[in-house]
């Protein structure tokens, strides 16, 4: 009995020491990841991300297990910490999984966010009657955009029911944008018997329609007005676009594509919006624009060439080509990898920074393999000097001594982000968080009127 108890006691001590060693290694790794995220700048979320109350956290790790992304949260000394906040896409699984309510997913402190407009609970801006839905509110995910579009139109419908003044040709609401938020808003307007006009610079579906073929577009179920519940947990681009096209045709949703918004003028009880197809008068305006805006251009000689593209729709249409991809974000590396998979392509990636900083973990891992085996060649700290018919000039900053190289080239894909429509919003008088009154003169002028 004595020896049995001694062996059991020794085993328990060993297991305890082993567990402490594992815990120590995990803690050291998490601390290293936190330092790495601060160096990369991925510790700060661009949109919604987890906010943890350390006084309530019990260190159970449920949030980590529930998160479908990688490296967003980790444990240090039994307390959850946010590591790579920028990797969060707002699934909120972590918030649901937390048994003590110590975690919330949101935008956090907005006092310094000059890129997030001030919105009411109904998504109304500082300009009465002007609403915002979707990515411009700072919240990502297709499901959230759809919910925003529905919520804003419901608020508009409640107000319309108490109004009587309407001029000939005036609609109840002008919906700007035909992405997830704009489509949902248009469907809800029909459901609420509102008169509406929907305009969009792009085809219905917005940026989702521009995704590469078979790209995973949605990872959560959602409710679509007039259509019902989309039950699947995953939809690729083609499936989601097919649903939207079917709903638009079935319910007769009218969308004017190829039409852009230039200005919105508030005239007391109604709005006059100037568009590229002419003015639109409406009681309310709903801006369902994305944050990406128009593609960011390089502004270099030769960029007007037809071989310069700003999106990849189907990689399989490019084979045996010499291709340059400009950019270092997820869209750029996904495009480069998709093109590298096609027969005979020679793919080069040019990125202005010294390395990748904000990639999703799976993209960072994959692009590392592509670079290691030579399927993609990358030039960091580089930029495009000029684009010619059969070559591209790259300027590489090698230890502050710029070098120029000429690469044989057939196509250039520029995936360097977009120009957000903030100037348009500010010209409408919309106030942003973190702004002092003098920073938004249009808003102050509106108040004065």
Characterise the protein shown here.
It is a single chain. The protein is an alpha/beta fold. It has 3 domains: 36-108, Alpha-Beta Plaits, CATH 3.30.70; 130-293 and 421-448, FAD/NAD(P)-binding domain (3-Layer(bba) Sandwich); 296-419, FAD/NAD(P)-binding domain (3-Layer(bba) Sandwich), CATH 3.50.50.60. It contains 10 helices and 25 strands. Strands 5, 6, 7, 12, 13, 14 and 15 form a 7-stranded mixed beta sheet that branches. Strands 17-24-18-19-20 form a 5-stranded parallel beta sheet. The chain has a 3-stranded antiparallel beta sheet with strand order 21-22-23, with no helix packed on it. Helix 5 (180-191) links the parallel strand 6 (171-176) and strand 7. The N and C termini lie far apart (92 Å). The relative contact order is 0.11. The model is unreliable at 438-449 (pLDDT under 50).
